[in-house]
Amino acid sequence: MAKLTVAEVRAARTPGRYSDGAGLYLRVRTNGAKQWIFLFSLAKRRREMVLGAFPAMSLAEARRAVEAARSKVREGVDPIDERGTAPQVNLSCPTFGKAAETYIEAMESSWRNAKHRAQWSMTLEKYAAKIAATPVDQVDSDAVLGCLSPIWTSKPETASRLRGRIERVLDYATVRGWRSGDNPAVWRGRLSMVLPQPAKLTRGHHAAMAWRQVPGFFAHLDTIPGSAARALSFLILTAARSGEVRKMSWAEVDFDAAIWTVPPERMKASRPHRVPLTDPAIAILEGQKKLPIPFPGARLGPLSDMALTQLVRRRQPQGERFTVHGFRSSFRDWAGDETDHPREVAEAALAHVVGDASERAYRRADALAKRRLLMEDWAAFVCST
User: Fold this and answer.
1) Core-most of 164, 212, 237, 246, by most CB within 10 Å?
2) Residue 205's CB: how many other CB atoms inside 10 A?
């Protein structure tokens, strides 16, 4: 006995079995999960008993467990059969809710902001409440369907995110050794057999103004005083996202080169994005130059997200609906329907990733000159009323 040390158990990475003596083994799976197993023979039958997962079950606990099992074998009793005669509770296995909390804590340092963590927590707490108290090794297909089915058609985007998050928590639990077997939240070949394809559901796109209506709305914005209206006008001209515009600083603007460089921390793709500035966009910034930042709120900090949202809501004609983010769609529809500018240039203007990894590796330029021509055509159209 006692061939293994705690340090060796922790360091074990290569898949296989590591003997501690007297039938106790540490099994390392190909996915990195570690389990304690007891190998024994009884009535000329070779038997394998899973004792628990490491690190939930320590080396010392595994040794005590295997000694108890060996005592049963000496008495001629099969410890596996005996254990199967009564309901068992795996005390080393956390609930799904606890596993989700542990996963979020482990991953949050790699996430871009606190909002992402809040979205993860809210989605699982609200829509996976049915399985929160279920031991994670007992979460099966029926349990996952019980969470997804009520919202699969009514809230398709939320349901799709929920499914993916449950899948990742269960994968994490498998790596930690808390569960084994197939993941019941996997889409292909499992949930796809009982739920309609997500692509066939109505997607929750941001409502967008028809591109032909943009010039009239833009002209109306020019009659409204305040930073919110100027920020929205600038957003329309640059096809940028709300946070990119609202939180911009003067240091990001090169007036001589007519370029606005958005830093990676404000970009969805986490990489800097150069935006060619047209004359109307420059004129808006020139008018804001006396302010500490281009588009401050009442307290001279960045405008709130609701400032632009409320501005749009108050100006919507009865029976129509559009959003701040939807102006990016208006721009994209106009570029595709009314111009001969290449698709790749329009996508680059929106800071979208285009092509596969291999194509992106060879194309590292951002087509700034071509995008400038596109944005000048867009500005001419927007300001045509």
Assistant:
1) 246
2) 11
Look at phi and psi of residue 94 and say left if phi exceeds 0, alpha if psi is from -120 to 50, else beta: beta
Contact partners, residue 127, CB within 8 Å, separation at least 6: 147, 151, 158, 159, 162
- Which helix (H) or strand (E) is 307 found in, with range? helix 305-314
Distance (Å, whole) CA 283 – CA 218 = 14
| Packing angle of the helix pair 227-238, 279-287 (nearest 10 deg) | 160
Q: Are 268 and 259 in contact (CB under 8 A)?
A: no
Contacts of 307 (CB under 8 A, 6+ apart): 227, 228, 231, 246, 297
Which CATH number does the domain 6-83 belong to among 1.10.1060.10, 3.30.160.390, 3.40.50.2000, 3.60.90.10? 3.30.160.390
Rounded to an integer, the average pLDDT of 258-266 is 92
Residues 6+ apart with CB under 8 A from 384: 215
Q: What is the CATH number of domain 211-382?
A: 1.10.443.10
More confident residue, 287 or 181: 287
Domain residue ranges of the chain, discontinuous segments joined by +: 6-83, 96-200, 211-382
pTM greater than the 0.70 cutoff: no
Cα–Cα distance list, 222 to 78, 225, 291, 382 (Å): 84, 8, 18, 12
Classify residue 383 as exposed, middle or buried by CB count within 10 Å of its CB (0-12, 13-18, 19+).
Answer: middle
Q: Mean pLDDT score of the chain, rounded to an integer? A: 85
Q: What is the pLDDT of residues 194-245, one digit of tens each?
A: 888 764 444 445 678 889 999 999 999 999 999 999 999 999 999 999 999 9
Residue of 227, 229, 139 lying closest to 186 (CA atoms): 139
Distances in Å between the alpha carbon of 290 and those of 82, 151, 167? Answer: 81, 50, 51
Are the CB atoms for 147 and 128 separated by under 8 Å?
yes
| 6-83 shares its CATH topology with 96-200 | no
CA dihedral 109, 115, 116, 119 (to 10 degrees): 130
Q: Tell me how far CA of residue 123 lies from CA of 14, 112, 120, 127, 162, in angstroms.
A: 36, 18, 5, 6, 6
Non-local CB neighbours of 30 within 8 Å, separated by 6+ positions: 15
